[in-house]
Amino acid sequence: MPGDPRPIGVFDSGMGGLTVLRALAARLPNERFVYLGDTARLPYGTKSADTVKAYALQATRLLLDQGVKMLVIACNTASAVAVDLLQQAFAPVPVIGVIEPGARAGVAATANRRIAVIATEGTVRGGAYARAIRTLMSDAEVVQQPCQVFVALAEEGWADSPATRAAAEHYLATLFASPAAPDTLVLGCTHFPVLAGAIRAVIGGRVAVVDSAETTAGAVAEALSGAGLASNAGARDAGTVRFFATDSPERFARVGAIFLGRAIDPASVTLVDLHTFA
Amino acid sequence: MPGDPRPIGVFDSGMGGLTVLRALAARLPNERFVYLGDTARLPYGTKSADTVKAYALQATRLLLDQGVKMLVIACNTASAVAVDLLQQAFAPVPVIGVIEPGARAGVAATANRRIAVIATEGTVRGGAYARAIRTLMSDAEVVQQPCQVFVALAEEGWADSPATRAAAEHYLATLFASPAAPDTLVLGCTHFPVLAGAIRAVIGGRVAVVDSAETTAGAVAEALSGAGLASNAGARDAGTVRFFATDSPERFARVGAIFLGRAIDPASVTLVDLHTFA
Q1: Interface confidence (ipTM) of the complex
Q2: At what angle do helices B196-203 and B162-172 cross, to 10 degrees?
Q3: pLDDT at A59 (0 to 100)
Q4: For an engineered disulfide with A124, which of A104, A130, A146, A158 has Cβ 3.0 to 4.6 Å away?
Q5: Which of A86, A136, A128 lies closest to A109 in space, CA to CA?
Q6: Are B159 and B195 in contact (CB under 8 A)?
Q7: CATH for A100-212?
Q8: pTM
């Protein structure tokens, strides 16, 4: 078996999806990646479903143009509204979102069957997490809380600042104060893992905090081998990432490093215009 | 003199510019307005100059299509990079930004000739406020501080929450602690006036806090009468506003009310696609 050397495409509204790319690269060391952040139009979390669908279609066309063999929607908002559409539009290319893996992680972690999901306004409004969790655990009690300010706090790199603590207090303290509180919190936005410390300080150590990065990497690994698309050990350029952004490569590199957990060379980021893929 | 009954066009990346519209409507009761918020692509404050220029051109074309007689760029980021371009591209239509009026307000308020400007990353990076202030007061000492998280806090309506206080503390406490601190703070983003209470709590009562809304309204009044474009008393539809947004009218109405200071009927907001004006 020669393996399939084509890269995996990863798409997000901006830099938050780099938390997913990080988990993918760790889990799949033989693969190479193309990451696209639609930074000129972020955030998606406050935008309507139709707008996000149109943007996701353009992003997918660019990634297919780059020869990707599989698409990972590393953005909760886009996963919530566009995964089905993209699967239909671009079959047989496998398209994997982060909602179903995130729901799976939450269901695996809960003992009292009460799960809280924090996400952007758009993800909460669409209700995709609640549906995905109830599909896996029909009697689960799901509480959804939009945490829009967390996006800006994460992009500012304020992982555990007083402002982040105060925002976490505002959004989460009441929800986790009762004895019947959820025992599991799903971070339903790829920006939020960098704020996990401040979130944990507010909700206490007994609540399981899960995100979709690890489980998405697992789902991608399964899909790759299931479809015979995996790359072989020792594949050329294994572990490399080509970055594309729709706005300032300098800012993408600077803020992206917060989410990727390592430095990004601005010269390695290519500026693209997605309107040409409309 | 019959007066010129055509509306004044007001453009912002989103809802923050409604603080300027509010001042315009109060100052110019005979005029009617068309307000466009490019909510599908906000915020502009983290985007590059070229991207913001392209967006501003599209927005202006839409407003001219609506028959406006004058254009007010009620967005600091777009004013900083696009006013000259729009003036040249659309002459003889008068184009007025918020930077020069904001600088004028700061210069009028300072006694010690030390002025602080808080704004988005994009506005600070471009340095337009510092240039505009030094044009008016060549020996002014200008300190610029990006306050990106303030945008999200204002849109969440957290006018004086603990998180807003903590963010204000982070951005501003050191700057205003010294005896040689600025005596004037210019709110260089149209979102920030709603956070003035929390900002004042951190910087103290002796600092003058000014924004560009009032002075922009004054500049527009002058330009109208100077160019013979003012509407007459008793003009038809005086005081009315037509709203356009590039994303969810519902969210525009809900969040916009925070900035406009009065309710907005979602049914009065028209959804538009600016790509058709590219």
Answers
A1: 0.87
A2: 50
A3: 97
A4: A146
A5: A136
A6: yes
A7: 3.40.50.1860
A8: 0.89
Q: Which of A51, A53, A155 is the mutation pick for testing B, counting most B CBs within 10 A?
A: A51
Evaluate whether B68 touches B7 at the Cβ level (below 8 Å): yes
Q: Using CB atoms, pick whichever of A51, A121, A151 lies closest to residue B40.
A: A51
Count of residues making up chain B: 278
Q: Please report which residue ranges of B43-195 form alpha helices under DSSP H.
A: 49-65, 76-90, 99-109, 121-126, 128-136, 148-155, 162-172
Residue spans of the domains in chain B: they are: 8-97+214-277, 100-211
B171 pLDDT higher than 80: yes
Is pLDDT at A1 greater than 80 in this prediction? Answer: no
Beta-strand relationship, B33-37 and B8-12: parallel
Which among B224, B223, B216, B222 is positioned nearest to B31, based on CA atoms?
B224
Q: What is the mean pLDDT of residues B67-87?
A: 96
What residue in B sits closest to A151 (Cα-Cα)?
Answer: B152
Mutate which: A13, A44, A48, A269, vs B, most B CBs within 10 A:
A48
pLDDT digits (tens, 9 = 90+) for A81-99: 999 999 999 999 999 999 9
Strands A70-73 and A95-97: parallel
Query: How many residues in total does chain A contain?
Result: 278
- Closest residue of chain A to B168, computed from CA coordinates: A163
Of 3.10.580.10, 3.40.50.1860, 3.90.1800.10, 3.20.20.70, the CATH number of B100-211 is: 3.40.50.1860
What's the rounded Cα separation, in Å, for the pair B55 and B44?
Answer: 9
The C-alpha atoms of residue B13 and residue A199 are separated, in whole angstroms, by: 31
Interface contacts A/B by beta carbons within 8 Å: 88
> Domain A8-97+214-277, what fold?
Rossmann fold (3.40.50)
Contacts B248 to A, Cβ<8 Å: 46-48
Dist. CA B235–CA B6, nearest whole Å = 10
What is the DSSP secondary structure assignment for residue A193, as one 8-state letter?
G
